[in-house]
Amino acid sequence: MRYVHVVDKAVFDVDLSKYQVLFHSYCARLCFEGYVTESYRSAVMKFAGLKILSVQDEYDRTDHLKREIHALGFDVVLTTVPQHQIELVYPKEEFPNVTFVTVLTGYVADWNLEQKGKIVPLQDRPIAIGYRGRNIGVRYGQLGFDKYEIGRRMKEVCAERDICTDIEMDAESRIYGEDWPRFIRSCRTMLGSESGSNVFDFDGEVEREFSGLMCDDPDASAYLKTLAPMEEPFDIGQISPRVFECAVSRTPMVLYEGSYSGAIEPGEHYISLKKDFSNIEQVLDSVNNIKLLSEMAERSFKHLILSGDYTYRSFVGSIQEIARAHSRTSGDGRKPDNLQSVASFSSQLLRLPYQSETLDPKEARVAETEQLLEVVLFAIVPTVKQRLVELFSIENVGEAGIWKILRQKIKLLIGWARSFSKLAWRVFREMIRAIRKRL
Hints:
alpha/beta; Rossmann fold; 9 strands
């Protein structure tokens, strides 16, 4: 298995004939012409193994993305478009030999199952309603507007009633790293809305016409009405990774009405808020009902987290099955007999981050190194657990006892791994500085 950099004019010099599967991450966005290096594109075209593409934000320059799927010859596309709407975006007659598999935008990573720090009882949390949203502009239609509007209106409503909130939508108020889960745990409830967009900008015309028009523009409502006919055929609203983050933290959510990928139900897993705020009084009553909130938080935790249905482990298993079903002979004539590399690759690239996208590049690289080491460590936990049972005959210890032993050792190993990765990064950084000085 190997990870490679393929954007920003990077030179791709990997011999792909040694590999059986190529997994292209959504991070290297194919909808932007020239973003992915040409040397990589050429290598992918010649690659004879299985090609899997993961895409998100497919509503941006969709036609160019579709041309790239054809040109690079992808066999499987992991899409966020629901199966019943695939034909609207990727018609079968255009893609007769491509398999489109609907996936979520994020899942629950194994190492997020155990929250760092104590889960604060809901009655002791200082913030009644918390939220961090974005003003991403009107070009993304109603779903994009909702991310801004739900925060703006709730902040206004709560201010009138002296309800303690921490609601912001500006870039300066974004929260990153370990401060983000800490913030979630300090909130009694968290606002949210569906992720994605129903405005499919196939040819880039919407981007050109609406670029720079933001959700706080006085004419935003008029612009949304203009886009409404484009949105009507689609229903791409998705569950956001934030829903999983809140479930792990036992933080109930107040969400706009929506389908949320069919993963959660109003009243059962979240408090439903109408987009016209017509039920705001009932919602605020629910926010003050600790018993109702506690029961909802537990239901969400059991359904989304403990069930295992939304973990990366489950996701990777499905990708392995897809890879096996589509496996074919690679360039050197070998038949792939172990596709674990596909699982590891997809698990690492599509993991659920704590909003780390705008970290300083240097800090981000350190974080990625640490997370990769954690992935390696936690990937072997099930095997180690089984070996403990087999070698030391501790069947009677029980699940909790085994995990207690493992957690102690793994925690120590992760501490070493983090220290080593930080030290390695410092050494590497100093080497680069020394080289630059000589040049």
